[in-house]
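Work Package 4 report. The design task specified in the project plan requires that, given a folded chain encoded as structure tokens, an amino acid be chosen for each position. We show below one input record used in the internal validation round.
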């Protein structure tokens, strides 16, 4: 089997595990032994792919939650609006805190464009 094909299977295994499949389930899907999946997960590039897949899954979930809760934030009932806003911050805040070294851009459909100021220039 070619190195490229094995590497692709390793990355696919990482994606399956990130989706919540067990190593045994991922092994069945890929036609590999469970021990092979576990060995692959010791590889740093596979672990990084797993972390990336987890982040993508979390961001997709947060985007869905934001869409659902955004209607409630605009609710006439102030208590409902406050709970929805707090829920959004609590949910999205976890991802931001875990990924502080990455730039994450969030766009909410229907939200007006707001510009961000340019970062200050570093002094040399």
């Amino acid at each position: 089997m070619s190195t490229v094909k094995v590497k692709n299977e390793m990355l696919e295994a990482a994606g399956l595990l990130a989706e919540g499949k067990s190593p045994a389930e991922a092994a069945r899907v890929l036609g590999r032994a469970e021990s092979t999946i576990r060995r692959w997960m010791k590889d740093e590039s596979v672990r990084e792919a797993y972390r990336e897949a987890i982040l993508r899954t979390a961001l997709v979930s947060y985007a869905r939650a934001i869409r659902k809760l955004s209607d409630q934030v605009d609710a006439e009932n102030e208590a409902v609006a406050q709970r929805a806003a707090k829920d959004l911050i609590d949910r999205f805040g976890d991802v931001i805190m875990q990924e502080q070294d990455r730039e994450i851009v969030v766009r909410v459909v229907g939200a007006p464009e707001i510009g961000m100021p340019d970062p200050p220039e570093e002094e040399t």
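The chain has one domain: 3-98. Validation will be extended to a larger panel in the next phase.
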